[in-house]
Amino acid sequence: MSNSEKALEALQNNDLDEYQKNLKNALDQDNDDMLFSLAEELYSLGFSDDALKIYRQLLKKYPDEDEIRTYIADILIAKDDTDGALEVLNEIKPDTSYYINALLVEADLYQTQDLFVVSEHKLIEAEKLAPDEPIVKFALAELYYSEGKYESAIKLYLNLIKQGQLSISNVNLVERLGVSYAHVGNFENAIGYLEQIKPIDMTPDVLFETGFTYLQLGNYAKSIEIFEMLRDTDNQYASLYIYLGEAFEKDNKPEDALRTYQEGLSVDEYNVILYLKAADIAAKLGKMDLTIKYLEKGNQVNPDNMEVVTKLSEIYVKDGQFEKDVDFLSDYLSDNNLVPQLYWDLAISYDHMNKIKQASENYQKAAMNLKDNPDFLKNYIFFLRENGKVNESIEFLKQYVNLVPDDDEMVYMLQDLETK
Length: 420
What we know:
Blueprint: H1 3-12, H2 16-29, H3 32-44, H4 48-61, H5 66-78, H6 82-89, H7 99-112, H8 116-129, H9 134-147, H10 150-162, E1 167-168, E2 171-172, H11 173-183, H12 187-194, H13 204-216, H14 220-233, H15 240-250, H16 254-267, H17 272-284, H18 288-301, H19 306-318, H20 322-329, H21 340-352, H22 356-367, H23 374-386, H24 390-403, H25 408-419
Antiparallel strand pairs: 1-2
Helix pairs in contact: 1-2, 3-4, 4-5, 5-6, 6-7, 7-8, 8-9, 9-10, 10-11, 11-12, 12-13, 13-14, 13-15, 14-15, 15-16, 15-17, 16-17, 17-18, 18-19, 19-20, 19-21, 20-21, 21-22, 23-24, 24-25
């Protein structure tokens, strides 16, 4: 029995001391074929360090054997020694049969390090050397897909499918092509490919893309059907609730839309978009208390989301909660980038609270950016007139009439003021 065989037998008997003794003897005495086989066995059994020791010894003896380098690289990759693996792979010579595979492995390693340009360079080099090799085109397509370069990915996926390659490495290329078309906005082509995927092969991501594509094509009933299928498959897939709700809204089913957004919030209570969606549909249904509830919760989740702040302030004003609006916006007044709408809301609230000085100050701030907004101008004009600032109102009246020349009431007001 060879030392290699004795080492493996010792492992079977859980005699590690005997194993180590025979491993050392094998390295010193066994022939190279025995050592090569021992390394393979040890690696398969999880003794990668010892396998690596054998391969390195063999490589010293056979420095031109790039096959050994590939085994060493595999072990180093498994040990998360990316730098070591790349160093070994870079030693593989371009004129060997292992070079293209080395390029593929290098590209994958660089991609894991987010070095996409280097990864692309390696794959393009591989494609030049093996232009008809499907696995090379597939690797390059997958790189582009992961980077969001869908136009480039589409060309490669199409090429592979035309060659009869529908699946590589358990990746459905028809699915990839359909999703890529969806991402570039070519929804007609996207749905043509996505519809070819068998229901059993529909992953949650593919169901989502299919439902989203039907939504973009205006087929709301089909979109709802697919999104509900996804919800039944994986009700924790948080992204679906936004678009399922939108599909219900576009299909004139507001109650179903509101229920969907509420379900989504039970899955993802920190999703501000869902709070905004729920608030908007509640407002359309005339459920003001519910609208305020969702906007206030959205504001608690993310106080810096100015869309929530603006909508909540607007609702407070519409609902006549002027003091609450002023108190709410006081936390944001130190922000020099406050949106003009909020200054307008503050002006209205202060006006209703008979705090004319504060109202005037905020109207002036709002006017700096809302001079092209007819609704604001009209509101401001009446505020100025009611507070005796007739001459100041003329400038804004001229601006308003220029924007809305068919508003007879305001035209007559301007004419009247200019003749006095």
